[in-house]
Design goal:
heterodimer, A: mainly alpha, 22 helices, 0% strand, B: mainly alpha, 13 helices, elongated, transmembrane helix (chain A)
């Protein structure tokens, strides 16, 4: 409330400022300066305050000169030192900002995109950049604290291999067994051979380092989570408040002042128009919904239930498909391994195909199934916003579920083999030595396939589509070729890549490096997709809302990525027990933290509603009181008027009576 | 940069750095852009006043439906304009200027007629019908007009801007 009045009084002062002439302005601006300013520091602060005044530059300059010309007290001793330091710090800050600004990554590209597509799409690219930096930082940490010590401590590896069933022994054997035999390109793609023995994978690290690593990696997992959860919820909070000002936000924050392209501006006009229409439409739908008959209601509920069952069935089918494909391909690989002593090129190609079959299936399903979802949701008759949200949630589920199925099938295979042999590292038939490395390889492959698909889809398929749409004037081809930048889909793409990275980071610590490189390249791929392939979208993507959406999706996928790892670490501990004891409590604490944040969030929201209502009431009260006051004043005036009139009347009467009596008296006489 | 530097003395640059939200380099860069609009005019006199038609050639302003309003508001002090739109300017300063831009009739209140103009500028060629427009304005006032006087005062406008999550990111022109 105090704030409110403060800003109001400021307003009044600006009103006053504006109505007065230019010469008066300075006088009215500088009423109390002489008494306030006592030393250099306050003078400087005042100059800083001039910044915020809405007056022309020339006046600002005059004011600054005036302040500087007046005699200042010099600060003494420590005060002087403090003030100097403060000023220096300020200068240093601005200089630092300037140089940082100069080296800012992708500045030109971002501005370019902003000019074409507005701030909503730019948030996506900023998010991409943020993920890039996040991975870089994680990589640096992991490299410094895990990989580097391992390389440096490389010498005393052999000393630990006295007992046969420890992991330290495992990689000893492992190194001897996995001899490089295929050609290098295949190895690079599959993550086998030479690469398998590098620092990229878990198998390289000795058990000692691993015990540190477990603790460290959990820390690195916590690092982003804490950030994401805090940021995500903060933005949801802001967004929640924004809901109260839906219309004002649209009107006053609607135009994107960054837009500089004629075409984009036209698109923006259209987008705002359709947004207004959409709000109108939703309002109407809302009314319609309230007046829906019971019969119609049943119908819609029925169709929703059916669609949901179908969706679940599709998800189940996908899961089964992935499981079978995985089993099939591993079975095929086994036959290859048992049969072959000499590998011909065609066979090795086949082998490569089988190696990649599971990941290709997953990526393929990720592309095809969302179209099905999009088709199905039309039957459910949701409002457009909810429609987008539901499709997104379902797609997220699909992607994460497919990952988990892959993981589960990996584990089921591994655990059964381990049980059979009772030893974790002896190679029986086809069980990969060091199952952690094997899992790491799978994820490595998946990441690579996913990345490859991005390249192919963007540069080949979509590019050809957009070329067709641009150069051939045909309705059908336009229908196929025209693409808009589908923000949720692209966001999901990069979140998926990040999830894979988190998922595999435990098994292949340097996957973060790979993710960093992938994100670096993805920026250019997505920029190409955005600027070359697509036309501006008729849907408004709000900067704030889309950002919070990214964060929420990232959070969900993060939890999904961490769950199986927490499980496997606790259940399938290789040798060391430290990890299990460590991971579970940490996870519980994190969950509690999440709960706490959401509780605070809802409480704050409620508070905002209450306060806003109070504000409205307050306004009404004021209005009412003012009305009463003016009424009262009016009545008072009337009363006084009447009293005066009455008095006058009485006086006149008196006069009249006097005069009549006088007249009468005189006549009597 | 060398050419730009010759037009400003060190003191002037210091003034600009102290009084706007820019650093010295950014001031020079902004001036370069300003110069690019009319090279021969600004080359002679760095404080040259350009006609609105010239200024509206600035890419961000040319497509902005409020371009003319912005020019009018800042006409007496256009060297200040880019600073207000910079990322460093605080919300309150931006709100102050935004209010003036939206206040078409200059009565220090955003009344129904102001809102109507703002909306019609925003939608451009696509026109809303009369009833839709009225309905929209009514909704805006319902939302934000806390004292029920049928217009938005600056305090109410600032209140909205405080809550508006998009305003800061959209009311901005990158140098």
């Amino acid at each position: 409330m105090r704030r409110y009045t403060a800003s109001r009084s400021r307003r009044e002062s600006t009103v006053h400022r504006r109505t007065s002439t230019a010469g008066d302005v300075q006088v009215s601006m500088l009423p109390d300066l002489s008494e306030m300013r006592t030393n250099e520091e306050t003078a400087w602060e005042e100059i800083m305050q001039i910044k915020a005044m809405p007056i022309p530059m020339s006046q600002k300059k005059e004011m600054k000169a005036k302040i500087l010309n007046e005699p200042n007290l010099r600060l003494q001793g420590y005060e002087q030192f403090k003030w100097r330091r403060r000023k220096m710090w300020g200068q240093f800050e601005s200089r630092l900002r300037e140089s940082l600004h100069k080296v800012e990554l992708w500045k030109g590209a971002l501005k370019h995109i902003e000019g074409y597509y507005g701030t909503g799409v730019v948030t996506f690219f900023l998010f991409l950049k943020w993920l890039f930096v996040l991975n870089l930082v994680m990589f640096l940490f992991i490299f410094l604290f895990i990989t580097l010590p391992t390389i440096l401590l490389d010498l005393d590896k052999n000393t630990y291999c006295s007992e046969s069933n420890s992991t330290s022994c495992c990689f000893e054997k492992y190194f001897n067994e996995t001899l490089p035999q295929n050609n290098i390109v295949l190895d690079l793609v599959q993550g086998t051979g030479i690469l398998e023995r590098t620092v990229l994978f878990y198998g390289f690290y000795s058990s000692e380092v691993l015990s540190y690593m477990a603790a460290d990696v959990t820390m690195y997992y916590n690092l982003p989570l804490a950030y994401i959860s805090a940021k995500g919820f903060k933005e949801r909070l802001v967004e929640g408040e924004g809901q109260f000002y839906q219309y004002c936000n649209l009107i006053f924050g609607g135009w994107d002042f960054c837009i500089q392209e004629e075409k984009a501006a036209n698109m923006k006009h259209k987008a705002i128009y359709s947004e207004i229409k959409a709000i109108l439409e939703t309002e109407k739908l809302e009314e319609e919904r309230q007046s829906r008959t019971r019969n119609e209601w049943y119908k819609i509920v029925f169709s929703r239930v059916v669609v949901n069952i179908i969706v679940v069935a599709i998800l189940g089918a996908c899961a089964c498909g992935i499981y079978f494909v995985f089993n099939y391909s591993t079975a095929q690989l086994e036959t290859f391994q048992t049969n072959s002593t000499e590998i011909t090129t065609s066979e090795s190609f086949q082998q490569l195909l089988y190696e990649f079959l599971p990941s290709m299936t997953i990526v393929g399903l990720n592309i095809v199934v969302p179209f099905l979802f999009k088709y199905l949701i039309a039957f459910e008759k949701y409002s457009p916003i909810i429609e987008i949200r539901f499709t997104l949630i379902r797609t997220v589920f699909l992607r994460l579920a497919s990952l988990i199925v892959l993981y589960a099938s990996l584990l089921s295979k591994l655990s059964c083999d381990i049980e059979n042999d009772n030893l974790s590292c002896i190679k029986c038939d086809s069980v990969p030595t060091c199952w952690e490395t094997f899992v790491g390889q799978q994820i490595f492959k998946l990441l690579l396939t996913d990345f490859g698909t991005h390249i192919v889809i963007t540069f080949v398929i979509n590019f050809i589509r957009s070329l067709l749409a641009k150069h051939i004037d045909n309705k059908f081809i336009k229908f196929i070729g025209d693409q808009t930048f589908d923000l949720p889909k692209h966001a999901l793409d990069i979140v998926y890549t990040q999830t894979l990275c988190w998922f595999g980071m435990f098994y292949a610590p340097l996957l973060s490096l790979m993710a960093t490189i992938i994100f670096l390249l993805l920026f250019y791929i997505k920029k190409f997709a955005c600027l070359v392939n697509c036309t501006p979208s008729p849907i408004i993507y709000r900067a704030s809302r889309s950002n919070s959406m990214f964060m929420v999706v990232l959070l969900v996928s993060y939890v999904f990525a961490i769950l199986p790892i927490a499980y496997s670490v606790s259940e399938l501990t290789p040798v060391e027990v430290i990890t299990a004891g460590f991971a579970i409590p940490v996870f519980i604490v994190l969950l509690l933290l999440l709960y706490y944040y959401s509780a605070v969030n809802s409480a704050n929201r409620h508070m905002v509603v209450v306060l806003k209502n109070q504000l409205v009431l307050e306004g009404h009260d004021k209005q009412f009181l003012l009305d009463r006051l003016s009424l009262f004043i009016k009545q008072e005036n009337q009363k006084r008027l009447r009293a005066e009139q009455l008095r006058e009347g009485i006086e006149i009467l008196n006069l009249v009576s006097k005069s009549t009596s006088y007249i009468c008296g005189s006549s009597d006489f | 940069m060398g050419q730009g530097k010759s037009q400003f003395s060190e003191d002037e640059l210091q003034d600009y750095q102290d009084l706007t939200y820019f650093t010295k380099k950014e001031v020079l860069y902004a001036h370069q852009k300003f110069k690019a609009l009319a090279p021969e005019k600004v080359g002679h006199n760095k404080n040259a006043k350009l006609p609105m038609s010239k200024l509206l050639q600035y890419p961000e302003l040319s497509v902005n439906p409020f371009g003319e309003r912005i020019c009018k508001i800042f006409s007496s002090s256009q060297d200040d304009m880019m600073s207000v739109f910079s990322q460093m300017a605080p919300k309150s300063v931006k709100a102050e200027h935004a209010f003036r831009i939206f206040d078409f009739d200059g009565d220090d209140m955003l009344g129904a007629s102001d809102l109507k103009q703002v909306i019609s500028k925003l939608t451009g060629e696509n026109k809303l019908t009369e009833s839709e427009m009225n309905w929209l304005i009514q909704n805006i006032l319902e939302e934000a007009d806390l004292d029920d006087d049928g217009a938005l005062s600056f305090a109410e406008f600032e209140h909205i801007i405080d809550r508006s999550s998009d305003f800061l990111s959209t009311f901005r022109i990158r140098l």
